């Protein structure tokens, strides 16, 4: 009765889905509360009312953030049998309260205790069923605290799953561990047997009353179901039930996956004589069973040769797989032979074909597979069909309409198949006949209408008729429009879709292979899939690669059955896909791009295929004409039997031909490697396939380049051993290969350390305790000291960071839980928590957080490799480690297969950003952080903009005219002389700080300088012992002058390097400044030299040339003289004050040009001449001073005027007093001097003045 109600409600439910296709699979029961063992001990049970293939279906839940997340996507070939129960659980039976292992065990199963919402979707994303509504507490179920009884939520009505009344809290007890405090019936009909808690015991399931009750219930169900269905597979006999349910939990066996007892495979069609090259020969096989079949290891044989089918040949139920000659190596005899399909010695099918014509296949009659017949239109990858040739009349030249006459050259053409064995018959309608498929040109010269009729009979005895209307108009007549010829008609199949129909978005590019391992010109292909529920014709559609690539291929008569695939090969389409990146485009007749797939770089030997989650993924499993198949993280082949034991990438001398890779069988048994591959790093040489390579135990074999074709690069390359699924089994890498060096796997110096995992923190971090305490002397010293220091503490566990990987964050104090972080943590928790492990160490043992860095092994398997292969983490290259390239290879596997985080574009982008940050950090450390001023410090124009150039993005700190640094961005403008200092800091992505050096400089703005404002008034170039050289500068202006950034030099552009005057040097108005030689690098010559005062921009402000004189003497400028600027040698040096000239030796004014009396005869003669002159009486202070011979003699200036000049110059007998002070002190004298000056001006002969000016 229950089954009847279930089916009745199901019928109502199906009607409510508005006619959508529906599979009778329900979410039947679920445990969201966990068990007394663990809150994570949860499961979901599905129920199928009929045999249902759930391949590609997905079960989802909604997490606490409101996001829908996948629990499980069912793999290809998953079938839930009629009236069967299918369990998905978080833990296996050993770690849960389930009495048996679930059909699917996944750590992704996490059911929330509030806002529960579970959805079951088919492979197209259509919701098949749901449980609960995502609001509040769950509809049913019980969550007891502590060790109390927990109960599942079970279905009681099979209507919509989001209605509370359709669910109830379970009361039965079946499918659990004996005496477990649970309620529910996982794997059994809902309701079960109610057992009170007091009666639960280890013998509960074997109690006769329980079995009797269960058998009775089963019999009722069987009887009811049998009355409604004649399918015996839907019923379960009471004897079967008693036998199954009466077993103890240890021996209980159950499976809800339907498997055919023997594969049902037949050879459906053979093309032995293709049009064109023989490599296009093929043999087609079909799976006529109800489940997927793996063809690997099966054989195809002709009369003389055998081909063993390799990996990547999973054939779904009802699908076809063709095997071409370039894959099998079988040369099919055009005269006919027998093709056999075998597994070992068991023959599954054999087909004997006769001699046929060109492009005529031979196979099974679609109406009766026991009958064989030829097909003039082969149907590779599709169900066989009897079709006539799609013949058209092709106009080679001329027009079908003309005035006066019409001349045409026509021929017969077929869009598929071949006319080689066909007979053609032409009737031109004016009496002209021909039996050639390419008749001669013909002229219609009489006005009128004609109809050219073409009749073609093919090898299969099918006749197709086509016509072409002709119109001859009178001369001078206008042409009338003649409708286009109708599309070719298939006489055997009714025309449903006309040519040029746009079928919308339901035609997809499903798979293609750009870089096959064999002949690219013959083995490239593109697969399309019809997602519509009806057969269609793609006539008029266009297949193309990227723009400006190959010539577009227009599909002609191209039918595809509902849900079927169509494979178009390069010899047919002419489309050549670029291995370095290209695209495949499908364009509708309207010009709309219906589908387009772009790839960056093809992987040798792999196809690019559409996965059910919408991602295109590289896969080693080529499935033209059948459902796509992809890599998973699971390994079908052993990883610890054969290794790459050595490689020679850089032989001494010439590399080419002498490179080799060595394999070693490290197991105790012989190994045969078939369809394995040797390869170098991705993007290098094409992989070398190993066919039937046998290695005995511990045997080593080298494979040279001459055999493999692998060119090993000397820089940044590797050798890889790949299993038949394309997964890395062994890896050996090098950075810069040394000449003649043989590279071998790294041998870790110490033995592995044994430990037990006490707690998993997240996906890459855990706590552990050492277990082999008796042998602490065998572990590294650093670890031993650390363990002994905390062994007796309350928590002696040591935190371990798995070296070389990073997983999405779940416990970071500054980050939210990242996508796939929980999945990574749960995976690692299920893998190692509470279990014994082994640790192995690299060159660094501790990170900056004092976590132990280690490679982690469990049962001999490297945990980091498993995490990377599952796509739950990525290689972390921030710090160097030995296995970096190996980890990158594992990561590449998951990236290619788009597993885990690599299936999420958001996570891929995040990982790539983090990778860029890591590269930036490494670059920082390698190159450092450097800064510079732009422009460099020095003389710049007022208003100049100065920028700080940085080698890396960083924060700049600037100080101007002070020691205080402030954060600075942009640029600063120089408007006055300034001193600047700057440094920069940059933070790594990890938060670490890098600081640059501090640089300093001074910017000087050019000044307006009036010649004569400053003079070099005295020099002391030849000091006595313990004295220093000095130069005195006099300011002759009424304002202070700052000498910052000025220069002092000797011979310009020669001699010593110019000395930059310090910024703090200032000359007061009418004052003096002595610059001493304690800090400068100048070296003034004792035999005479130049002294130059230079402006910041290099212009000369003042200069002086002095001759040779005795040590301890100064060369001074006389403050005033009757003849102008004069110099003297004086023993009274006055640095910083007015000069005193008392030496009786008088020298002429020095030349502005570098000179000495010994080398300049003019100066020498002048000195000699003046020394002999009779001297006039001068004031005592200025005695023995004569004017230079180069200066004109002027009338003597009265002594009172000279004294006034001395006063104005700031000189007095008492020292350097200011002129104003002297004026006040000697007011009477001032008046007297002024009167004398006036008298001189009035009575002095004017001619003398004019004479001086003329000179």
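^ structure tokens above, recovered residues below v
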């Amino acid at each position: 009765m229950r089954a009847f109600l279930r089916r009745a409600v199901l019928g109502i439910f199906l009607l409510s889905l508005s006619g959508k296709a529906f599979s009778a699979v329900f979410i039947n029961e679920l445990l969201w509360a966990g068990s007394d063992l663990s809150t994570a001990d949860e499961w979901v049970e599905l129920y199928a009312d009929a045999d249902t293939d759930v391949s590609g279906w997905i079960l989802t839940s909604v997490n606490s953030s409101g996001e829908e997340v996948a629990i499980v996507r069912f793999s290809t070939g998953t079938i839930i049998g009629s009236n069967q129960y299918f369990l998905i659980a978080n833990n296996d039976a050993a770690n849960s309260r389930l009495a048996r292992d679930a059909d699917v065990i996944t750590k992704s199963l996490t059911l929330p205790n509030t806002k529960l919402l579970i959805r079951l979707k088919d492979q197209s994303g259509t919701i098949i069923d749901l449980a609960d509504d995502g609001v509040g507490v769950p509809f049913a179920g019980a969550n007891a605290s502590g060790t109390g009884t927990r109960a599942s939520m079970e279905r009681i009505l099979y209507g919509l799953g989001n209605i509370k009344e359709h669910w109830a809290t379970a009361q039965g007890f079946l499918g659990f561990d004996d005496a477990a405090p649970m309620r529910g019936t996982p794997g059994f009909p809902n309701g079960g047997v109610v057992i009170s808690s007091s009666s639960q015991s280890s013998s509960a399931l074997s109690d006769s009353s329980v079995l009797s009750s269960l058998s009775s219930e089963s019999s009722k169900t069987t009887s009811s179901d049998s009355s409604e269905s004649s399918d015996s597979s839907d019923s379960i006999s009471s004897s079967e039930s008693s036998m199954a349910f009466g077993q103890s939990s240890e021996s209980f066996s159950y499976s809800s996956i339907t498997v055919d007892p023997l594969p049902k495979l037949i050879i459906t069609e053979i093309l032995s004589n293709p049009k064109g090259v023989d490599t296009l020969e093929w043999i087609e096989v079909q799976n006529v069973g109800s489940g997927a079949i793996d063809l690997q290891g099966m054989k195809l044989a002709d009369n003389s040769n055998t081909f063993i089918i390799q990996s990547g040949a999973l054939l779904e139920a009802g699908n076809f797989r063709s095997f071409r000659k370039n894959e099998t190596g079988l040369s099919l005899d055009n005269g006919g032979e027998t093709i056999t399909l075998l597994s070992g010695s068991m023959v599954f099918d054999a087909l004997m074909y006769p001699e046929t014509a060109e492009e005529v296949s031979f196979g099974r009659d679609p109406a009766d597979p026991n009958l064989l017949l030829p097909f003039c239109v082969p149907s590779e990858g599709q169900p066989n069909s009897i079709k006539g040739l799609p013949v058209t009349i092709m106009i080679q030249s001329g027009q079908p309409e003309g005035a006066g006459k019409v001349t045409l050259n026509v021929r017969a053409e077929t869009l598929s198949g071949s006319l080689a064995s066909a007979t053609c018959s032409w009737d031109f309608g004016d009496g002209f006949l021909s039996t050639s498929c390419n008749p001669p040109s013909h002229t219609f010269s009489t006005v009128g209408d004609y109809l050219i009729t073409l009749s073609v009979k093919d090898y299969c005895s099918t006749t197709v008729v086509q016509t072409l209307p002709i119109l001859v108009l009178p001369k001078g007549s206008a042409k009338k429009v003649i409708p286009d010829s109708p599309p070719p008609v298939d006489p055997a199949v009714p025309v449903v879709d006309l040519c040029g129909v746009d079928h919308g978005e339901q035609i997809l590019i499903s798979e293609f292979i750009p870089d096959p391992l064999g002949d690219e010109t013959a083995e490239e292909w593109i697969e399309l899939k019809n997602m519509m529920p009806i057969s269609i014709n793609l006539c008029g559609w266009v297949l193309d690669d990227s723009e400006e690539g190959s010539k577009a291929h227009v599909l002609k008569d191209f039918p595809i059955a509902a849900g079927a695939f169509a494979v178009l090969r390069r010899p047919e389409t002419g489309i050549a896909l670029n291995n370095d990146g290209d695209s495949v485009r499908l364009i509708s007749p309207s010009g709309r791009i219906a589908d387009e797939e772009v790839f960056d770089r093809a992987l040798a030997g792999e196809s690019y295929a559409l996965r059910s989650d919408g991602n295109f993924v590289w896969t080693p499993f080529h499935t033209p004409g059948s459902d796509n198949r992809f890599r998973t993280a699971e390994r079908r082949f052993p990883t610890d039997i054969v290794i790459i034991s050595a490689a020679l990438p850089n032989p001494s001398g010439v590399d080419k031909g002498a490179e080799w890779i060595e394999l070693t069988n490290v197991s105790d048994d012989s190994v045969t490697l078939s369809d394995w591959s040797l390869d170098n790093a991705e993007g290098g040489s094409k992989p070398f396939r190993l066919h039937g390579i046998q290695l005995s135990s511990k045997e080593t074999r080298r494979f040279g380049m001459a055999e493999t074709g692998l060119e090993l690069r000397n820089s940044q390359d590797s050798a890889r051993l790949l299993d038949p699924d394309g997964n890395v089994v062994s890896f050996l890498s090098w950075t810069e290969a040394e000449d003649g060096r043989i590279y071998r796997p790294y041998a870790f110096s110490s033995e592995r350390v044994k430990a037990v995992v006490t707690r998993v923190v997240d996906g890459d971090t855990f706590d552990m305790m050492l277990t082999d305490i008796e042998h602490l002397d065998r572990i590294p010293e650093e670890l031993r000291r650390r363990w002994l220091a905390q062994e007796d503490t309350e928590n002696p566990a040591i935190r371990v960071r798995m070296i070389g990987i990073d997983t999405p964050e779940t416990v970071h104090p500054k980050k939210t839980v990242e996508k796939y972080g929980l999945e990574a943590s749960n995976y690692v928790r299920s893998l190692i928590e509470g279990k014994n492990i082994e640790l192995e160490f690299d060159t660094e043992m501790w990170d900056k957080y004092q976590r132990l860095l280690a490679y982690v092994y469990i049962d001999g398997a490297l945990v980091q490799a498993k995490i990377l292969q599952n796509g739950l983490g990525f290689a972390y290259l921030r710090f160097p480690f030995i296995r970096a390239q190996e980890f990158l290879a594992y990561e590449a596997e998951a990236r290619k297969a788009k597993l885990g985080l690599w299936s999420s574009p958001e996570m891929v982008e995040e990982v790539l950003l983090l990778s860029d940050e890591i590269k930036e950090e490494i670059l920082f450390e390698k190159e450092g952080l450097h800064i510079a001023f732009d422009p460099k410090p020095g003389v710049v124009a007022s208003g100049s903009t100065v920028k700080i150039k940085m080698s890396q993005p960083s924060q700049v700190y600037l100080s101007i005219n002070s020691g205080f640094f402030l954060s600075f961005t942009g640029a600063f403008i120089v408007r006055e002389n300034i001193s600047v200092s700057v440094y920069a800091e940059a933070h790594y992505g990890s938060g670490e700080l890098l600081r640059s050096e501090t640089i300093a400089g001074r910017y000087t703005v050019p000044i307006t300088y009036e010649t004569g404002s400053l003079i070099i008034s005295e020099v002391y170039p030849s000091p006595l012992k313990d004295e220093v050289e000095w130069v005195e500068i006099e300011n002759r202006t009424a304002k202070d002058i700052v000498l910052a950034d000025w220069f002092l030099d000797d011979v310009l552009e020669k001699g010593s390097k110019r000395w930059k005057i310090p910024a703090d040097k200032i000359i007061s108005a009418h004052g003096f400044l002595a610059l001493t030689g304690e800090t400068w690098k100048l070296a003034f010559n004792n035999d005479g030299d130049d002294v130059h005062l230079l402006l910041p921009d290099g212009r000369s402000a003042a200069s002086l040339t002095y001759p040779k004189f005795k040590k301890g003497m100064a060369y001074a400028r006389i403050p005033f003289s009757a003849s102008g600027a004069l110099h003297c040698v004086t023993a009274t040096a006055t640095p910083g004050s007015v000069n005193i000239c008392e030496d009786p030796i008088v020298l002429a004014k020095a030349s502005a040009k570098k000179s000495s009396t010994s080398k300049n005869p003019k100066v020498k003669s002048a000195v000699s001449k003046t020394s002999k002159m009779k001297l006039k009486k001068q004031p005592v202070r200025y005695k023995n001073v004569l004017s230079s011979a180069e200066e004109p003699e002027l009338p003597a200036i009265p002594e009172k005027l000279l004294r006034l000049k001395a006063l104005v110059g700031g000189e007095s007998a008492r020292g350097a007093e200011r002129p104003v002070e002297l004026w006040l002190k000697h007011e009477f004298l001032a008046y007297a001097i002024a009167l004398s000056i006036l008298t001189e001006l009035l009575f002095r002969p004017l001619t003398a003045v004019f004479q001086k000016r003329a000179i």
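The CA atoms of residues 55 and 78 lie 5 Å apart.
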